[in-house]
Write a structure and sequence with these properties.
The chain is mainly alpha-helical. The protein has five helices and two strands. The protein is elongated, with a radius of gyration of 18 Å. It starts with 10 loop residues before the first helix and ends with a helix. 15% of the residues are buried.
Length: 125
């Protein structure tokens, strides 16, 4: 999956968000070893120092930990991963609801549109 980094926001934050999303979505599993800083920096076409900064922040939050000679690994704390995932989901839902409110939709109208969209999606599958 391409990295799609852009200049409007700090690159290290975009990298941080991408790796965090890969972790909470299950691309990386608890306890799994992450690719090296240099490897991921090459994939993302960024300076290794930028990637290192993102990794350092992930370590600070506890989502990633390092073993001195072995590299960096995803936390094995599934509860932490689930909590971060739920918090992010709630944040996205609130943003969506605010956007719908700005468009002039009331709660029931928004729910109705969501049900319709979900039914269409179910029909596709």
């Amino acid at each position: 999956m391409p990295w799609n980094l852009n200049a409007d926001r700090p690159i290290f934050l975009q990298i941080l968000e991408r790796i965090r999303m890969d972790i909470i979505s299950g691309k990386y599993t608890p306890g799994e070893k992450l690719p090296s800083v240099r490897e991921l920096a090459a994939q993302a076409a960024v300076n290794p120092n930028t990637m290192q900064r993102a990794f350092a922040e992930l370590e600070r939050t506890g989502l990633v930990y390092s073993k001195r000679t072995s590299g960096r690994f995803i936390t094995e704390d599934q509860e932490m991963i689930d909590t971060i995932r739920a918090d992010l989901a709630k944040e996205k839902i609130l943003q969506f609801l605010e956007s719908m409110h700005q468009l002039g939709y009331e709660k029931e109208q928004t729910l109705s549109l969501m049900r319709q969209a979900m039914e269409r999606e179910d029909a596709k599958q």
